[in-house]
Specification:
Protein name: DUF5594 domain-containing protein
Number of domains: 1
């Protein structure tokens, strides 16, 4: 993927993904867009927590590390978004992202509710835009 495509993805699609993820994970979680640097360091969405949940909110930290997750998408999938039908496909993806987050949690020992995870850092990489 070239820089122009990366920029278009960063400005036209990733902010909407970040907004949706922010709504899903709610308070206590920070969602940041990390810009494209090179083919080896693509655009990333960083989902993190600065602190564990408070005792009074009904959740206890499940895993030893605070939430520190990075999401990246497959270059070919990003290019498909920029072709005919890409916007409709993307909207279906946004509608499905809550279910996708649930599935990713179980696969990698990440718990969004308690803002914790089993490993210091987790990468959900090479993601697609299937709904």
């Amino acid at each position: 993927m070239n820089r122009e495509q990366a920029h278009r993805f960063e400005t036209g699609f990733v902010p909407r993904i970040a907004e949706r993820v922010t709504r899903i994970v709610d308070h206590g979680v920070r969602v940041d867009i990390l810009p494209y640097e090179s083919p080896a360091v693509p655009t990333r969405l960083h989902v993190s927590a600065a602190h564990a949940p408070r005792e009074g909110d009904g959740h206890r930290q499940r895993y030893p590390y605070l939430l520190n997750v990075f999401l990246t998408w497959d270059d070919e999938e990003i290019e498909r978004l920029m072709s005919s039908g890409g916007e409709a496909r993307f909207l279906r993806y946004l509608d499905a992202i809550g279910a996708k987050l649930d599935a990713w949690q179980g696969a990698r020992e990440v718990d969004l509710a308690t803002r914790s995870q089993a490993d210091p850092s987790v990468l959900f990489g090479g993601l697609d835009f299937e709904a």
